[in-house]
Design goal:
The complex is a heterodimer. By secondary structure, chain A is mainly beta. Chain A contains ten helices and 43 strands. Chain A is globular, with a radius of gyration of 24 Å. Chain B is globular, with a radius of gyration of 18 Å. The chains are: A mainly beta, B mainly alpha.
Chain lengths: 587, 273
């Protein structure tokens, strides 16, 4: 029998205990970070006024998986930006994912509007029975003829569409060596061997032996909630320069089967060779370091133990350290799951790893999908847009509880779709709003990111997937384009007060690939240095304009250093601000 | 030597061994902790709180095995929003503190980690979820832990509690399936997950927070299983008011049923005396 408690001592203990209970309540209120009323960023949704009325439609699948079809078929809304006709105005390509539905190529009319020319260009009717449905697209001039070509990745056969330069595209898939069935949700162009030709990395999500319209089995799902490796195999294709590509996946060691949803290529370790960073669903992220174009090595880098549900890879120099940092979106759902997004600071040179520092608003953005960095207010610091929401259906019904039952199951139960509870009309992290995260680092260390979406005018609650940024109207301001699953595309025109200076670079490779994909540009201004890379696909099923945009704040422009994919370093000084500079690689 | 062996074979230390096995195996294979700072925080706070409060209130330092088990359980089960440590620190303090603050007739009413986790998921749902990690959904590692767990539960004389719960869970899963439809394996699946391993071997069997008779313990754990099933049905039928409960049905069912049963048992014992 315990000793009787002296009452005053017990009162002290109860008081301390009560204080701890109260502390939990107080700290919890600060957890999510509140939406701030900062007006540094103003975005106005103008898709319809701009002539963009694109609506994504989800694929219809084999009836064997009808009970969870909304879950499986919740992908495919993509947006990719490129100057398709070389008129120096960015154009937009959207994909949809249902047989018979048309993808859209919106040509920039240079007057604030766009016109869909996909049908006459020959890039609309790509969703055909027996061929598969579109899941996304990336632009790159694979044959260096001066016109951006289009690779559409699919649940089905990918398609390579050669830009003929006359407003039309030719389907060259058959002779390219790329005609093989995949269930792909991502692709990036990169010149991994620096031979001046764009190579292609295609990610596999579901296994490639799965035909979603003629299923032979329902054992198609992930074998683990967090360490699944039974997905489709990622493939690396080397550009042979004659219109053909060769599968070099195994030789180069990049055939991950970890359900990759997104990939980004950049020189993360500053050795001059483009590396591959993968966001894997149901598994840890992967960084493949490029060893002089001879092979890739899977790096530790602090990623291997942190298993989440990677959806997108955004690359940006978050704190102006002249490095490529990484933001990877994941899932957060109140009460059920806090994976949290990852903001990984690149310390590869110092520590051989990334440090994950996401907290508050940047960590918890709901069920997050696409994300992109970009300086939306031209203050010299990269902001971040994150789009969210998985399935917005009946708001009175929620699939989270039902999914939590199967999530803990053994792998052989989990991977069989027939064991999953039917989703019916339920939502799953639906009706979530997009986030616009203002980078406040100019206020000093610890400034961090604050969510200004509502104050900025971003209020939609559609199921965002792809997001891309581009100075669509050549005003020195980054606009935001969002592709929504089973929803209309959005164009957020940047209406921020134009106080900060800016500079943009359009790079043209000569010894490097002509698109200059993989080129690093470091801009110095006012004591800051910021690096950006020309991307060949980044975020989730999206691609930014390959014209790079730097906000400069009130500063002038200092030295500009361009590291071309060929290895050439070019230094430019005395350039004017508030202009687009077209820079051709020295021969 | 024999005395030392007997001491080590004490059920308390077997449970210490089992939870250490769970920790080491899970961390080595699946990095289930998510950071050693979390383990250091929960263990440190649990041990320190136990030492200070037992000395402060009882004039002697209590055996620390219970605090050790609680510290590891919390490190494994609490999955907070990214990179925040306070749920581990406050959860650990609340867990051990509950043994000294929430008492009736000198006995604490809640299993310490059950109280802390239930409070955190209910009061701090914006910050804390429970065990998002599933240890790879790997059958082999689960079988190892179940085998060791059952052996230890038998040695600790709580196997009847574990088995009663498991049998009730399986029977009620069949009943739920008959009511809500859908795949039967979806109803059975949760018990194959790691949260249930921690629940059936470390929480529901805690001798300090179970009733005094063998039959009573079996009845109580059956009621816990029934309460859990009611919460699960609330989840299936989307009773919004009960949503906070169905994020973790077994933990919250125990948090509701356990202290009521303890109070009733202590009350009855007192009346008999």
């Amino acid at each position: 029998m315990p000793m009787p408690h002296p009452s005053w001592q017990r009162i002290v203990v109860i008081a301390a205990f009560s204080a701890a209970l109260a502390a939990v309540l107080l700290l919890n209120r600060r957890a999510t970070g509140s939406a701030a009323a900062w007006d540094a960023i103003r975005l106005s949704e103008v898709a319809h006024q701009s002539g963009i009325d694109f609506v994504h439609r989800a694929p219809t699948l084999d009836p064997k998986v009808a009970h969870i079809a909304p879950h499986i078929a919740a992908l495919g809304a993509c947006v990719s930006v490129a100057d398709v006709n070389n008129d120096n105005w960015p154009d937009l390509y959207f994909t949809t994912s249902r047989f018979g539905e048309a993808n859209a190529l919106y040509l920039n009319q240079r007057d604030g509007t766009f016109r869909d020319v996909a049908a006459e260009a020959g890039v609309a009717a790509l969703n055909r029975a027996g061929e598969g449905v579109s899941m996304g697209a990336v632009w790159g001039d694979y044959d260096n003829d001066g016109f951006e070509d289009l690779l559409v990745y699919k649940w089905g056969y990918p398609q390579l569409l050669h830009n003929l330069g006359n407003g039309r595209f030719a389907d060259v898939t058959a002779q390219s060596g790329l005609y093989r069935w995949m269930n792909s949700n991502g692709a990036v162009w990169l010149d991994y061997d620096r031979d001046g030709l764009l190579d292609l990395y295609l990610t596999g999500y579901f296994r490639s032996d799965i035909d979603f319209w003629h299923l032979q089995t329902t054992r198609i799902m992930q074998s683990s909630w967090e360490f699944a490796s039974n997905g489709g195999k990622n493939l690396l294709f080397k550009n042979l320069g004659n219109g053909r590509f060769e599968d070099v996946t195994d030789a180069m060691g990049v055939g991950s089967t970890r359900w990759t949803l997104a990939a980004a290529a950049a020189d993360f370790n500053d050795d001059g060779w483009p590396d591959l960073y993968l966001a894997n669903d149901y598994g840890p992220e992967e960084l493949f370091l490029n060893r002089a174009g001879k092979r890739f090595e899977l790096a530790g880098a602090g990623l291997e133990d942190d298993s989440k549900s990677g959806m997108a890879v955004a690359v940006g120099d978050v704190f102006n350290r002249d490095r490529h940092d990484v933001f990877v979106t994941n899932i957060s759902e109140r009460g059920f799951l806090f994976q949290g997004n990852n903001l990984r600071i690149n310390l590869l040179k110092e520590l051989g790893r990334f440090n994950e520092i996401a907290t508050g608003a940047i960590a918890d953005a709901g069920w997050a999908w696409g994300a992109q960095f970009g300086d939306l207010n031209n203050d010299g610091w990269l902001d971040l847009v994150v789009v969210n929401g998985f399935i917005s259906a009946d708001s009175g019904r929620d699939y989270w509880y039902a999914m939590s039952k199967i999530a803990g199951a053994q792998g052989n139960i989990f991977e069989d779709a027939k064991n999953w509870p039917p989703i019916g009309t339920a939502s799953l992290s639906g009706y979530e709003r997009s986030r616009v995260l203002l980078n406040r680092s100019r206020e000093g260390p610890g400034g961090g990111f604050v969510d200004v979406a509502l104050a900025a005018g971003v209020t939609d609650r559609l199921d965002g997937r792809g997001v891309a940024m581009a100075d669509l109207f050549n005003r020195g301001k980054l606009d935001v384009v969002i592709a929504n699953e089973k929803g209309r595309a959005l164009l957020y025109r940047n209406e921020a007060p134009g106080e900060g200076h800016w500079v943009e670079f359009k790079l043209i490779g000569t010894r490097s690939n002509r698109s200059a994909i993989g080129a690093d540009v470091t801009v110095q201004f006012g004591g800051e240095r910021q690096r950006q890379v020309v991307d060949g696909g980044v975020g989730f099923c999206s691609q930014n304009d390959r014209r790079l945009h730097f906000g400069l704040g009130s500063n002038g422009l200092g030295r500009v250093t361009i590291r071309w994919p060929s290895g050439e370093t070019q230094v430019l000084e005395g350039l004017k601000v508030d202009e687009v500079h077209v820079v051709t690689e020295p021969k | 030597m024999t005395a030392r062996f007997r001491a080590l074979a004490d059920p308390k230390y077997l449970i210490v061994f089992l939870i250490t096995l769970v920790l080491v195996a899970g961390e080595a294979r699946y990095s289930i902790l998510g950071g050693y700072d979390r383990l250091a925080t929960t263990l440190g706070v649990c041990l320190a709180t136990e030492i200070v409060l037992s000395w402060w209130l009882r004039g002697r330092v209590a055996n620390l095995a219970s605090a050790y088990i609680t510290g590891i359980s919390l490190a494994l089960l609490i999955k907070p929003q990214a990179n925040i440590l306070w749920p581990f620190a406050l959860g650990a303090f609340l867990a051990i503190g509950s043994k000294y603050a929430l008492t009736y007739r000198g006995r604490h009413l809640w299993n310490p980690s059950n109280f802390a986790i239930a409070f955190l998921v209910l009061a701090a749902a914006d910050s804390v979820a429970i065990l998002s990690h599933q240890w790879g959904n790997d059958l082999r590692i689960n079988l190892v832990i179940w085998a060791f767990g059952l052996a230890v539960a038998s040695r600790a004389r709580v196997l009847h509690v574990t088995l009663t719960y498991v049998v009730c869970f399986l029977g009620l899963a069949l009943l739920r399936n008959a009511i809500v439809g859908g795949p039967l394996l979806a109803e059975l699946a949760p018990i194959t997950g790691p949260m249930y391993q921690l629940f059936v071997f470390f929480m529901v069997t805690d001798p300090r927070t179970t009733v005094s008779t063998r039959r009573g313990r079996m009845v109580v754990v059956a009621i816990v299983a029934v309460a859990e099933s009611l919460i699960r049905l609330a989840g299936d039928f989307q009773l919004t008011l009960l949503r906070p409960l169905y994020v973790s049905p077994p933990i919250l069912a125990l948090a509701i049923v356990g202290p009521i049963a303890m109070w009733w048992d202590l009350f009855r014992q007192a009346r008999k005396r």
